[in-house]
Amino acid sequence: ITGYKKSEILGKHCYENILQHIDEKGIKLCLDGCPLQKTLKDGKKREAMVFLHHKKGHRIPVKVKVTPIIRDKTIVGAAEIFFDATEHLINNELLNKYKKDAIIDDLTNVFNRRYIKNLIESRLNSLIRYSWPFGVIFLDIDNFKLINDKYGHDVGDKVLVTVATTISNNIRSSDIIGRWGGEEFICIIENTDYKNLKLTAEKLDF
Question: In the annotation, is 183 catalytic?
């Protein structure tokens, strides 16, 4: 991800003019706010969006996941994993730019069926190759036809937009929502297991 070789990194600190990671506001995390440092202090798992210094000089977006290493109830270290977050930036910052590329549902402003199908295939490949877990939640709106018949399609459209917005606001930034068709939606939940996937599904069952 960063362009550095293993021999250039092992035994060194990130602040030694290597990774020099900053947050979205440009704050240098090596000096204050490093997710790894926080986990070493309190033992809590963390996820964060950071920008790392590439060997060639430019900044690259990376999602960081930190897990404590605990022995006999004592924090003895932590593991920090970096994931390429370019896709995340596309999803969140360049959404409008990609509307014309036929991956966004015009009405609800979430991803469309084509994009979701490709993303599921990509996640399955990552699961097979790297054992990166993910979950899929399928949702639809009860009695939606009755809403259209009784109040008209304009009201039905407002319902679809409201549901899509509500779902988007109740999942993590790393998770994805798409409109599967009609009143059906799909959520792709990153890095989850069955228990947490079920909890997320129950939270979205409004």
Answer: yes
